[in-house]
């Protein structure tokens, strides 16, 4: 086997280090799988002199990422962030290199520019690691389900928040404490705001939705609510009502009743998942993507969504694919956005909801609350009342499927009733 492919790695953080480890320790197996040796020609870093894992060969470190990109056949971008990652990826593509990236933020923000550049240059742009780390869900949706019709995707796509919510539920720890532990374990982004406020999940939701519905989904069209507003009481009530609280990315075909438009809805929000649903069992930092399709039915992909080694596995799967294409010719799938469906506003969603209220415990209050629901056409499925402190009752109301707009209007009307002390929380129930 005489052929060699020059591989450049941009970034030597948690993922980059594991990619380098696999490239060097598995070199013979990789060569046999690809049909050419993968030669690591350089590792671009910000500071060549920073302390590093011994797996990273010091002699290959460089601070000149552009020069490195220019001499590579395959560029692996695992530095993250928008710039200089975008500039370097575009440079690599224009030089005719295949690119493998784990950069969900960049793909969600400016994917079409990158896809168009890859198309024009006739090179591969692969990004399995951008969504749900080590789970091969991008390939599954982009290739395995390319002949089916996806109806809905429900994903736990952020390991940090799943770890945090699981810790809160199982150990009763507070949110801040659990976030610190997730950071220490290497799941969280450098700035955990991206995790807890749902930005990381929103980027992944936009990518998954684009693939599932063959439609460009701009990041700013993705509804987003993070987990920072959740308390241990929310977690406790979820359990009491037979649910588990999860931060879900939801992408679905939908109909906007107000405008009559059919399109797709994409959002990230905390949701109550019934305890019998497969997503309810996804614990710790695990990720899972539950896909509902017309022909295959329900599928669930489960695995490690964060961390160096699992993410490096996804990166290396892509490296092997694009390198094989170099050897045998051809390219992998390109962007598919032919369906060009309208992306609906997040409040066009229809779902079941659970409201929790503190109300005065006296005759007629329940009737007033029920009337507010009726006025907005929201049908109540169940009501549960528990005693609170001194003449205050806690009401937990679950609705039938209704529009988010009607539900918000109902919650506002309920909050304005003199007998209602406060609307404690309003959460969607998903996956029923
Ligand atoms: N911070 C992310 C997570 C890592 O917690 O899932 C992978 O994107």
Secondary-structure map with pairings?
Layout: E1 4-10, H1 14-25, H2 27-34, E2 37-44, E3 61-62, H3 65-70, E4 74-77, H4 85-94, E5 98-101, H5 104-121, E6 125-126, H6 137-144, E7 150-156, H7 159-171, H8 175-184, H9 193-196, H10 199-213, E8 223-224, H11 232-240, E9 243-256, E10 261-274, E11 286-293, E12 298-304, H12 308-328, E13 350-360, H13 365-375, E14 380-387, E15 392-399, E16 402-403, H14 404-415, E17 420-429
Helix pairs in contact: 1-12, 4-5, 5-10, 7-8, 13-14
The structure holds L-homoserine.
- From the 3D structure, determine the CATH topology of the largest domain: Dihydrodipicolinate Reductase, domain 2
Main beta sheet, described? 11 strands, mixed
CA-based shape? elongated
CATH architectural arrangement of the largest domain: 2-Layer Sandwich
Tally of discrete structural domains: 3
Our measurement of the CA-to-CA distance between the termini, rounded to an integer number of angstroms, reads 54 Å
| Helical content band | 25-40%
Ligands and ions found: L-homoserine
The CATH superfamily of the largest domain appears as Dihydrodipicolinate Reductase, domain 2
Strand content: 25-35%
Structural class: alpha/beta
Q: Please tally the helical runs, counting DSSP H or I stretches of 4 or more residues.
A: 14
Rg over C-alpha atoms, rounded to the nearest angstrom: 24 Å
Please report the first level of CATH classification, the CATH class of the largest domain.
Alpha Beta
- Poorly predicted ranges (pLDDT <50, ≥5 residues)? none
Report the mean per-residue pLDDT as an integer. Answer: 96
Number of strands: 17
